[in-house]
Amino acid sequence: MPVAQVCVDLPLPHLDRPFDYLVPAADADAAQPGVRVRVRFAGQLVDGWLLSRAAESSHTGRLAFLDRVVSAEPVLRPEVLAAARAVAARYAGNLADVLRLAVPPRHARTESTPKSAPIMDLGTSSAGSEAPNPMIGAEGAEGAEEGGWRAYSAGPALLRALAEQRPARAVWTALPGEAWPARVAEAIAATVAGGRGAVAVVADARDLARLDAEVTAALGPDQHVALAAAIGPAERYRRFLRAARGEVPVVIGNRAAALAPMADLGLVAIWDDGDDLHAEPRAPYPHAREMLLIRAQQAGAAALLGGFTRTAEAQQLLMTGWAKPVAAERVTLRRRAPVVTPIGDEPQLARDPAAAAARLPSEAWRAARGALAAGAPVLVQVPRRGYLPAVACGDCRAPARCPHCGGPLQLAGAGAAASCRWCARPVADRQCPECGSRRLRAAVTGARRTAEELGRAFPGHPVRTSGRGEVLASVPGEPTVVVCTPGAEPVADGGYGAVLLLDTWALLTRADLRAGEETLRRWLAAAGLARPAGDGGRVVVVADGGLPAVQALLRFDPGWYAERELAERRSLGFPPTARVASVTGPADAVVDLLAAASLPDGTELLGPVPIAAERPDEGEPAQPRERMLVRASRANGEAMAAALHAAAGVRSARKALDPVRIQVDPLELL
């Protein structure tokens, strides 16, 4: 009787292996690899995925039968299973957890819809395919528009490689003002013209909407699907099925689309891989960039990492020779870039001594006024949302804290009373425990307060905000002041006449390993929306011009900064030059897990470090936690992850009560 190897959908590490079940004769045809099944496990009916079938089992005991085949639809494609296994091994996780990220929940009514004919046979296309490519034209990649990939020295060669099914691997540094969705769509179109499929990942819904429109323009309607959680479970599952059935050659989406099914994958692409939205917040906490690189390596596909900046991980790919740079010549960059002026170095302070203390120095005010007078919009980036997200004592300047839970106090509006950001309690009659004063002053100014101040500074011009409450996708090319938080910058028609980067200390002084890299990423994302210098575009950054991040912004040279950042990471022994796992939990549980781990030789243990307790429920004490860092070389990274996963399985088998979280190469290490 045939045997089915099943991955049971349970989050316990000691059960992270296939289990054998007999296939009933009634389900012999439906029980094929990739289908969903129900099995009886430890006396309960649980979901699972049928991974493979065999003629017999190596298990010597008695085997149970599959309870039933939930659906005969093979939703787990072989290429997705292979990638999921590699992702689980890379991040010390369970295969079931990765499959839960890769395959959306079933929607029975959607699944019952008839299959459509495949748009193209991705499995039988040849390198010499004559399929038309609207972005390349009859004369090949050289026919691309002057303002497109031809602006980059290796751009036409990249398109030729994609059309010829060669596994080109590129780290693309986009020019300021670049219409990056159009460039990504051109790369996708070249791949499809060559007879292979593509998967592209962006960080948020705004970027996905822009890329969706450009891919539709490049390929035509019904040639791709866009996967995102916001579209609803039924529609998401319908689009997923179209990709799994081979009905479309292109899948775009957010981080979950990195594991989207694609039978003959020719290109994986990711835009702005430094955005923290690409990191999955659920176990095993994989990063979309790493999942895509795994798929490119397994499928022999091309890879494109693009952005206005460059991460240390992307620089590592260049330094090892795995990828090649795609960037513009300096003369092209100078023609496309705006003028960048730092405020805070000695020449500026000599001309304007008050600039050291002013939140909006006179140079920034003049740049904004000049842009508005020329009929152009102005973008103002501030790092904090809200009105006054942090306040302090008006006399001694001690941070104002909630007397109930110790959380930071804030002011939600001009006439609002102080309230706690943790427990939301209003604090109407607070007295400073240090000096007894009842006065409050702003410690951090948010976007709404900044918009209020700029409304008074530039009367007669509308002031709009873009942030967490309402994120603007675009604004017209009219004299308007737009105040936004990082990541919420709307695109302006014709570009912004001036971009002001305020409160830069809030980004630069964060206690984070990636603080400088993240600051430069956010600055370049905003500066890239400005008009070229020849059209009057200006960027004013309120920071010392001698800082490395400011120097990189002045020259629009993220490669230089990424190389410097990578060298510092190498000297410190931090990712991506090494593998570091964060092990967090109660102190005894962390010690127990590490004692059970057979770590490879040369592995270092750093810590323990106390972790700030999460806000407890009402009346419950906070449980103290600690974190240990486990560091290994890149060569031993997989062995370290396997050892930690096995140790978690030992604790799981012993039914240990205290959970321990394992994160390999987390974004936050400090």
TrEMBL record:
Molecular-function GO terms, alphabetical: 3'-5' DNA helicase activity; ATP binding; DNA binding; zinc ion binding
Q: Which InterPro entries match?
A: P-loop_NTPase, PriA, PriA_3primeBD, PriA_3primeBD_sf
Q: Where is this region: Disordered?
A: 107-132
Q: Name one GO biological process term.
A: DNA replication initiation
Under Pfam families, the record lists:
PriA_3primeBD
Would the keyword DNA-binding be found if you checked this record's keyword annotation?
Answer: yes
Q: Which GO terms describe its cellular component?
A: primosome complex
State its cofactor.
Zn(2+)
Cofactor binding comment, as recorded:
Binds 2 zinc ions per subunit.
Q: Where does Zn(2+) 2 bind?
A: C402, C405, C420, C423
Quote the record's binding site residues for Zn(2+) 1. C393, C396, C432, C435
Q: Does the keyword Isomerase apply?
A: no
Q: How does it assemble?
A: Component of the replication restart primosome.
Could you say which protein family the record assigns here?
Belongs to the helicase family. PriA subfamily.
* PANTHER family hit by this protein: PRIMOSOMAL PROTEIN N (PTHR30580:SF0)
Q: What is this protein called?
A: Probable replication restart protein PriA
